[in-house]
Write a structure and sequence with these properties.
mainly alpha
């Protein structure tokens, strides 16, 4: 969507194709940064649906692992990934 807006804005410019593509690529990290919480939410829901479809949730419960402990592991991993993404994202912004 952003690429079409950039092309429309720069249609009278000499660098018709290269400049909008470059500006769109520069905008991709900020867009990804904004939608990461939704990516984690949707992927967690698909993870639980996959566990339910394959009856692995029953296997976990038979071995004494409840839903909260599975969720706790997912939250810790998501928090670590989010922390790493934040560190990398803001360090890259400082370098630019």
């Amino acid at each position: 969507m952003n690429l079409f807006e950039e092309i429309n804005f720069f249609k009278d410019n000499e660098e018709f194709i290269l400049l909008p593509i470059y500006l769109t690529l520069l905008n991709v990290p900020s867009i990804l940064f904004e939608i990461f919480p939704f990516i984690f939410l949707i992927s967690t829901q698909f993870f639980y649906l996959d566990l339910i479809d394959k009856n692995e949730l029953l296997v976990f419960k038979n071995h004494g692992i409840n839903n909260f402990s599975i969720l706790k592991v997912l939250v810790i991993i998501s928090a670590l990934i989010a922390l790493m993404i934040n560190i990398v994202f803001y360090n890259v912004l400082i370098l630019i």
